[in-house]
TrEMBL record:
The keyword Oxidoreductase does not apply. It comes from Campylobacter gastrosuis. InterPro entries: DmsC. This is Dimethyl sulfoxide reductase anchor subunit. The chain crosses the membrane at residues 12-35, 47-73, 93-112, 119-140, 152-171, 183-203, 223-243, 255-277. The keyword Chloroplast does not apply.
Length: 283
């Protein structure tokens, strides 16, 4: 299998995790904006509809990852926890999808009835979705030595903050106070995101695949190239965002370009993240 085959195989997970984190991050930024009074009660309805469709499209790639739609029935039988060899285990992956689905449901309810509690519940289950998302990979760290729960948790949450802030800038920010709030969230997110990538790289330098092979040897230089490309794109997105904040009239086109560049930057780092489970095919 070639490297591009790997990318195609893992693309549903790359799209699902990146887009879901972007939408949850958007809800995270919108919630304090509403609490602070930047957004009115009347605007909740439109936000509920927007976040519902955004989450819906973010979840679509996860269906393709199932391979067979009948796997949904197996998923339903193992919600929350499952028993294996007489012991109970948290089913992180199923809980991840369940929480994403509940966040979707509460977004729809927010549209149907503009109640702030539905906004809070959509946010809570969105944040739980990301926790279980990271836990799904952390639970496999004994066998997949290139993954660590703590690093993955910071990586995923920081991606949500960065993408959520720039998403809010694109779709909902109207005045300078909202722009500053969103930018600060994004700046905080990008700081943790880059730090997470650095710690992930340090971690990879101290583990071996199959007990004998260094991950960097298997990646044949791809890791450095992808991480460099990711860092450049993420930095470029932040610069475009910063520049757009100080234009006399914010450019929607520039905001869209910044958002798309940010998404691409995160996705490139995410491709390597999932590729590390099968680094032996990247010779």
């Amino acid at each position: 299998m070639k490297f591009y085959d790997l990318v195609a195989t893992e693309l549903p997970l790359v799209l699902f995790t990146t887009f879901t984190q972007a939408v949850v991050g958007l809800i995270f930024v919108y919630t304090p904006a509403f609490i602070k009074g930047y957004k009115s009660q009347n605007e909740l309805k439109n936000f509920g509809l927007f976040s519902f469709f955004a989450l819906f499209f973010a979840l679509l790639p996860s269906i393709f990852h199932l391979g067979d739609i009948t796997h949904v029935f197996s998923f339903l039988k193992k919600l929350v926890m499952f028993k294996l060899n007489g012991e109970w285990h948290i089913n992180y992956m199923n809980n991840e999808v369940m929480c994403a689905g509940l966040s979707l449901v509460f977004a729809l309810l927010l549209y149907l009835k503009a109640n702030r509690n539905f906004l809070f519940l959509s946010l809570i289950f969105g944040l739980l979705c990301i926790f279980f998302m990271a836990g799904a990979y952390g639970s496999m760290q004994a066998s997949v030595t290139t993954w660590r729960f703590d690093i993955t948790l910071f990586y995923f949450y920081s991606s949500a903050l960065f993408l959520g802030g720039i998403f809010y800038h694109l779709a909902f920010a109207k005045d300078i106070y909202e722009e500053k709030m969103a930018f600060l969230v994004g700046l905080f997110g990008i700081g943790i995101l880059i730090t997470s990538i650095v710690f992930q790289t340090l971690h990879l330098g101290n583990v071996f695949v199959a007990g004998v092979i260094n991950p960097f040897d298997l990646l044949n230089g791809n890791y450095g190239n992808f991480i460099l490309a990711s860092a450049v794109l993420i930095g470029l997105a932040m610069l475009l965002w910063y520049f757009n904040n100080y234009l006399n009239k914010k450019s929607k086109t520039l905001a869209l370009v910044a958002f798309l560049v940010a998404i691409l930057g995160v996705m490139i780092s995410r491709i390597i993240f999932y590729g590390l489970i099968n680094t032996h095919i990247m010779h």
